[in-house]
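Forum: Protein Structure Q&A
Topic: Joint prediction for protein chains with partners

I've read a bunch of threads here and the consensus seems to be that you should model interacting components together rather than docking separate models afterwards. I'd like to see that in practice. Below is the full input, 283 residues plus whatever partners are listed. Could one of the regulars post the assembled result?
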Amino acid sequence: MIVSQFLVLAALLFAFGVYGLLARRNAVMVLLSIELMLNAVNINLVAFEAFIRDSLASGQVFAIFVITVAAAEVGIGLAIVLMIFRNRTSANVDELDLMRW
Amino acid sequence: MSFADWIADGRNWAFVVLAVPVAFSGFRVVTSRNVVHAALFLVATLAGSAALFLLLSAEFVAWALVLVYIGAVVVLFLFGIMITRAPMGQETALDHDRRWPAIVAALSVFGLMAWSSVAAFEDQVVKMPGEATSTEVLGEALLGRYVIPFEIVSFVLLAALIGGITLARRDLSPAEEEEEAA
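Posted by a regular:
Agreed with the consensus. Here's the joint model:
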């Protein structure tokens, strides 16, 4: 196994995440795309850990940190989306233009 | 490394078998017109990634991914989809009308990242160890060298917990509070 094959797969998943982030209107779908990007980063971290093999397993430790922070981010993000939905009866990001100049 | 050498390795077959469904379901996450299907395709992507982690001998991370993501995060997403009554059936208004800028941005991100990582690492081989990274090594690293980030992350989780409750609970108006008390 070469390390580039994992990096290219992760780049592909990250690009899908970027597309979803920009093209989706629904805020829940935007959060799903962010999860996809974070998962791509995890693949990179674990692939580099397998490639470098340091004694502290840093890549895997940071992948665990990313998973944890992603879980916290989804919890807060969905709470905010819920709040917006309750106040405006819509979870579409392009209708949230209250603070647009 | 020539392509013949690459394809002769059984692990690369396993990689291809895993990577193709991962990429396909990742694609479907962002293109599916059905919100629930998109969430379930995310499950497929994450399960495939967990299998890739097993291939890279990162067992603990793989199972943490299955437990935290597939077990908790996706369930949270399904709750969010149902509570916000996001369009459940076939729905065209899920995307913006102008997709071209997004496609261009995604293609350039992929091109840049794929090109730079291939240019930097070319065909360097992942040396496979005999056994997987043991949970003991990970635990010692987490509670040794990385103990401060570890504690900060647990604090972040606590803050997210409190923030989530505060944001999502419904504040009662004074009249309703009197009713509750009565």
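Chain A is about 75% helix and 0% strand.
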